[in-house]
Amino acid sequence: MSEAPAPLAIRLERCGKTFADGTRALEPLDLEIRAGETLVVLGPSGCGKTTALRIIAGLEEPDPGGRVLFDGTDVTPVPIERRRVGLVFQSYALFPNMDVRGNIAYGLRIGGLDKAGRDARVDEMLAMMRIESLADRRIDQLSGGQRQRVALARALAVRPRALLLDEPLTALDAKLRDTLRVEIDALLRRLGITSIYVTHDQAEAMALGDRIVVMDHGKVAQIGAPREIYFAPASRFVAEFIGSMNRLEGRVEAGRFVTAAGAIPWPGAPPGARHVLFRPESVRLADADSAQLAGTVSAAFFLGDRTRLFIECGGHPVIVETGERREFARDAPVHLAIDGNSLLLLKDSQ
Amino acid sequence: MRRRGPAFWCLLGFTLCVCAFLIVPVGMSMLAGVTVNYQSGIGSGMTLRWVAQVWEGYSDTIFRSIGIALACLACTLLLGVPAAYALARRQGALARTIEELLVMPVAIPGLATAMALIVTYNTLGEFRTSWTFILTGHVLFTLPFMVRSVLAVMGAIDLKTLEEGAASLGAGFFRRIFTVVLPNCRSGILAGSLMVVTLSMGEFNMTWLLHTPLTKTLPVGLADAYASLRLEVGSAYTLVFFVMIVPLLIGIQVLARPVELGTKATRR
Asked: Any idea what the CATH number is for the domain that residue A92 is in?
């Protein structure tokens, strides 16, 4: 095995995918993955994100006309076994007929590395994933989190040019998911390897991605850094898929956005606007004098560190989170203040 | 110790009755094979005369049967395992239809299949009179059992993803087959192998029509012995049959095991 290869830049050119039964899984897609970055492909199930990943891996061929380029070289006809990309699956795909050591050494053996070299590299990978004690276990003796660590070690052992992860944490329980997410993040940053991470979990996407590609119905809905996607969503789909989003109906009157529940000062309001969007964290409970909106509590969920309130505001439910310790009764009147700078207006928010 | 209720004793009694129902006739027959005169009972004395007579007259049928069974196993492995793999990897109506059609030879009586073979190949004298003619019938009959049991195991593991994992690590098609697919289907291949060997060894219906006086197999010889010789000789034949087939079946199971022992040995 050679030393760690230089990070790979990947480009997809008009890569669409239509399956034999006529289903259009992916509309022709142009996508640039920069060398060394972690790109998260995010979207609901059936949005084409896994198909895109499989095209990059070489497990699916794009429809005629589509091209996959690795560092500028066309690899479209190159089968997966010669693309040198590491793959990590939701179902782990570890070989049950081999122990942990055998699984990690599998790719090294195919690469023709001698026994001493294999053992050294396997030990290195076991140490990196902190699973030395599992080296001689059978796969069926491992927990889900341990299996995914072995799968990562197996994929990285051969020093792939890029790492492709398909919902690697989806099968794990919430707590383990958080732990492993932090570990994967640290690992990818340390290795500086180009990675493409497919998930439907927006929290994972925010935490891991240098950039996020949000997909919907086989098309790219938005590409951008996590903050861009969150604070400046390009469409209502993106706005509502990522995090919680509140929506109010009203009309613009003399520099204010007037709703049935009150008016919000908003000098920049364009004349035709009829809806505004804002995140729960940009609205807070306030005194009647300093508030802009009035409503009633329709539901309250105590989450420990905060309380999540659903407030009826002139016919629209508004989600508010508060650190106040008091209990909120149903139908209790409350007043809300909104940060005018965080209001969003979207083209397709009819 | 916990007192066992009446239900336990009833079940135990029932189990023992079923076992006795299955085992006693076999034991009686084997015993008859070493009795001097079965009519006058064990009192007439024990002898290996009948066994020797069987060995002298029929040992060729025994070796022929073992030969055919092993050849049949080889054929069903070479045909059945790739067929199962192709069916497992292919989705769609065609694959499922073929899967259903594969059961057909089992549903058709052996005699009918044998007749069909004879009608088709009667003119090929050399083939018709050789042991490979019987082998053809046995392969037709046992192949579905091999495909089915391998397919069942392939369906239970996520073969596609395992192969994709192997491919991403650089393994080409044949490498994937030999290092990932086959080792993980071992239990199905073993179950299929045992079934094929036992079915082929014991096949009578079809073989009775397919054989010639020079290509008798063990079951045909057995029927022959029962029909034309002393009861003791036929029984001695059964005895020999058991002595031959039990080690063979154990042997196949042991042969299928070294891989597992190998992986255990590497564990410290």
From this structure: 3.40.50.300
Rounded to a whole number of angstroms, the distance from the CA of B171 to the nearest CA of chain A is 6
Instruction: Give the pLDDT confidence score for residue B166 in this predicted structure.
Output: 94
Per-residue pLDDT tens digits for B107-148 = 778 788 888 888 888 777 777 778 888 888 889 888 988 998
**Res. A195 pLDDT band, cuts 50 70 90:** very high
pLDDT in tens, A205-264: 998 999 999 999 999 999 999 999 998 888 888 988 888 888 888 888 877 888 888 888
In contact, A280 and A208? CB cutoff 8 Å: no
| Displacement of CA A204 from its chain's centroid (Å) | 5
- What are the chain A neighbours of B190 within 8 Å (beta carbons)? none
Residue B265 confidence (pLDDT): 38
Long-range contacts of B255-264 (CB under 8 A, 24+ apart): B256/B186, B256/B189, B256/B190, B256/B193, B259/A97, B259/B183, B259/B186, B260/B186, B263/A97, B263/A98, B263/A99, B263/A102, B263/A138
Contacts of B265 in chain A (CB under 8 A): none
Contacts of A165 in chain B (CB under 8 A): none
* Mean pLDDT along residues A125-154: 91
Last residue of a domain, one of A241, A269, A304: A241
Q: Which of B169, B174, B176 to mutate to test the interface with A (most CBs of A within 10 A)?
A: B169
Domain harbouring A301, CATH code: 2.40.50.140
For residue B109, what are its two tokens? Answer: 């009586």
pTM: 0.79
Together in a domain, A182 and A253: no
Taking an 8 Å cut-off on Cβ atoms, the answer to whether B171 and A96 are in contact is: no
Question: Over 50: is that where the pLDDT of B263 sits?
Answer: no
Q: How many helices (H) and strands (E) does chain A have?
A: 8, 19
Q: Is there a domain that residue A280 lies in?
A: yes
Q: Does B168 contact A106 at a Cβ distance shorter than 8 Å? A: no
For A312, phi and psi rounded to 5 degrees?
A: -80, 115
State whether A17 and A35 are in the same domain: yes
Residue A349 has pLDDT above 70, yes or no: no
| Listed residues A186, A217, A241: the one ending a domain | A241
Task: Look at chain A and report how many structural domains it folds into.
Answer: 2
